[in-house]
Design goal:
- The complex is a heterodimer of chains A (183) and B (196).
- Chain A is α+β, with helices and mostly antiparallel strands.
- Chain A has one domain: 2,3-Dihydroxybiphenyl 1,2-Dioxygenase, domain 1 (Roll), CATH 3.10.180.
- Chain A is built from seven helices and nine strands.
- In chain A, the strands form two sheets. In chain A, strands 1, 2, 3, 4 and 5 form a five-stranded mixed sheet that branches. In chain A, strands 6-9-8-7 form a four-stranded mixed sheet.
- The longest helix of chain A has 16 residues.
- Chain B has 196 residues and is an all-alpha fold.
- Chain B has two domains: 78 residues, RNA polymerase sigma factor, region 2, helix turn helix motif (Rna Polymerase Sigma Factor, Chain: A), CATH 1.10.1740.10; 102 residues, Winged helix-like DNA-binding domain superfamily/Winged helix DNA-binding domain (Arc Repressor Mutant, subunit A).
- Classes of the chains: A alpha+beta (183), B mainly alpha (196).
- The interface between A and B is medium-sized, with 30 and 37 residues.
């Protein structure tokens, strides 16, 4: 009964051409325009940085929940792409952007540290109030692999592993901490 | 359990900015729909138009509905219908790409089968443009967007029986046009000019 429609199904443009997800920047921009039209407030243009890494997870949905809860990343919800083969999400922290997706041969051949046996990179993030960030991560179940301490190069930092073992380095400049506490 | 679209939209009557959640949930789906149906560069502008229309009409949305997606598809389908020149260009471009695709990467023994399939897609897409607009709309919501009969009925604001009859007429016509190899040379694009 569905056979006669098969050629039509197959002719869908994104099946004829490789499935490029719609540009997440377009969604960010159009959402900003819509909110300006709705609220009358001036649009805030959040430009993506030139460099934005992508991390792979076996369970990218769980990873998204963990990264927002434990590490305080904020999802650009309007950019989320849901496919039967996995989800793509864009997360922001400060002026940085991170993309996450599913691990696997068919997903750019990227591995989760669970598959690779070890992380092969580290994501470095400067945050506001590193002590509060550390408390939040620890209580959300992040594995702290380097303790929070002041370093000679002028950072206060700690390192943690996320759900699947990607390694994260969180820091704040000591000079900013001093300025904040007024000492 | 997430709050239903109906509840979000009801909330947005008092608090307009709440409507942003509807964009978050459905913006990428609607962008993909529009990019299939009109020039990809035009799709971006139409996405904004769809959501602005939806926002203005949000008081008509039935608040007991879980998903706003069929309703948004309906608005988007009407917006596509208004841009029929862009739609016709898009169909011609897809037909062209379908015709070229088989030539790229096929070892010899598969090439013949692939060329057949590709010629068939090209005919299908070309024939699609000549169907009555209302039938094309239903066929594509069904075959490309994978909406159910009920969702298509909601989207287009017509009874489910009408969806069924348009779909069966559309597919019969499509089969007829694509099995007669001479038929496509006589085909002319029919603009979507039927409103809901």
């Amino acid at each position: 009964m569905t056979d006669d429609l098969e050629p039509l199904r197959q002719s869908r443009p994104d099946r004829v051409l490789p499935d490029d997800p719609p540009d997440p920047e377009v969604l960010v921009r159009e959402k900003a325009r819509l909110m300006t039209a709705i609220t009358g407030a001036a649009a805030v243009h959040r430009r993506s940085p030139s460099l934005y890494p992508r991390l792979a997870y076996r369970d990218e949905v769980a990873a998204l929940a963990f990264l927002t809860r434990a590490f305080g990343l904020v999802e650009r919800r309007e950019s989320r792409m849901e496919h039967p083969g996995g989800m793509l999400a864009w997360l922001e922290i400060g002026d940085g952007v991170l993309m996450i997706g599913r691990a696997g041969e068919e997903h750019h051949g990227l591995l989760s540290p669970l598959d690779a046996g070890a992380p092969t990179g580290m994501v470095n993030v400067y945050v506001h109030d590193i002590d509060a960030h550390h408390r939040r991560a620890e209580s959300a179940g992040a594995r702290i692999v380097m303790p929070l301490e002041d370093m000679f190069w002028g950072d206060r930092r700690y390192e943690a592993l996320d759900l699947e073992g990607h390694r994260w380095h969180f820091a704040e400049r000591l000079s900013e901490i001093r300025a904040r506490s007024g000492s | 359990m997430q709050v239903s679209d109906g509840a979000v939209i009801a909330d947005s009557l008092e608090r307009p900015s709440a409507f942003g959640v509807i964009f978050d949930r459905h913006g990428s789906t609607l962008l993909r729909f529009l990019a299939r149906r009109v020039d990809p560069s035009g799709a971006e502008d139409l996405l904004g138009e769809v959501f602005r229309i939806a926002f203005e009409r949000r008081s008509t949305f039935q608040r007991d509905r879980d998903s706003a997606r069929p309703w948004l598809y309906g608005i988007a389908a009407n917006v596509v219908a208004k841009h029929y020149r862009s739609e016709a260009r898009r169909l011609r471009a897809i037909a062209r790409v379908s015709a070229e695709r088989a030539l790229d990467d096929d070892p010899a023994e598969r090439a013949v089968a692939a060329a057949d399939a590709s010629a068939r897609w090209t005919r299908v897409v070309t024939a699609l443009g000549t169907l009555p607009a209302a039938e094309r709309q239903v066929l594509l919501l069904f075959a490309w967007e994978e909406l159910s009969y009920d969702e298509i009925a909601l989207a287009l604001g017509v009874p489910v029986g009408t969806v069924r009859s348009r779909l069966s007429r559309g597919r019969a016509r499509l089969t007829e046009l694509t099995t007669d190899p001479d038929a496509t040379s006589k085909l002319h694009f029919t603009p979507c000019n039927s409103g809901r």
